[in-house]
Design brief:
The chain is an alpha+beta fold. The chain has helices at 31-34, 54-62, 67-78, 112-115, 127-142; strands at 2-12, 17-27, 45-53, 85-88, 99-102, 107-110, 120-123.
Length: 160
């Protein structure tokens, strides 16, 4: 389910700290875990993924990549060669040019932030769309790990 105007915690680079953002999100938590009539322990939060509108994504690329490199990145994303990004098609009035799920921004929010008067339930994903998102999450989270730990200095292999 896509819901707009949802509050969620996120890193705010311009302030170099975490804050609360508001925007369009895809709710990833299963419906039965969100249903408040189900008396379950710890069912007061939902896993979400913010949706980055295509125009905002392209604007962010302009400061980092030249037009050629940005075009190549977009073609790789479209071909599903970039595990951390999933294209979301056009949704009238919400994503006029489409958008991207950035899977490295998976977050959470309290259920009260999904049902308030100020949020808008935008749409449900189609079964095919949900299958593609599930596959993208699996590819992203279960791909083989590198031998070298992240944040470690690179050391070339010793000469033999």
């Amino acid at each position: 389910m896509l819901i707009d105007n949802v509050e969620y915690p996120a890193y705010v680079a311009s302030e170099s700290r975490f804050g609360v953002l508001r925007g369009l999100v895809l709710v990833l938590t299963h419906e039965c875990d969100l249903e408040q009539d189900n008396s379950r322990v710890m069912n007061d939060a939902a896993i979400i993924c913010p949706v980055i509108p295509l125009e905002a994504f392209v604007e962010n690329l302009e400061g980092v990549l030249d037009d050629n490199a940005a075009g190549q990145l977009l073609s790789h994303v479209t071909a599903r060669n970039v595990n951390r990004l999933v294209y979301i098609p056009v949704i009238a009035d919400f994503l006029p040019m489409g958008g991207y799920l950035y899977l490295n921004l998976l977050s959470h929010t309290h259920l009260s932030k999904l049902i308030g008067d100020n949020v808008t339930r935008v749409c449900m994903t189609s079964p095919e769309g949900l299958r593609e998102i599930d596959l993208a999450l699996e590819r992203h989270l279960r791909r083989p790990k590198d031998d070298r730990m992240p944040f470690q200095p690179y050391a070339p292999a010793p000469a033999v």
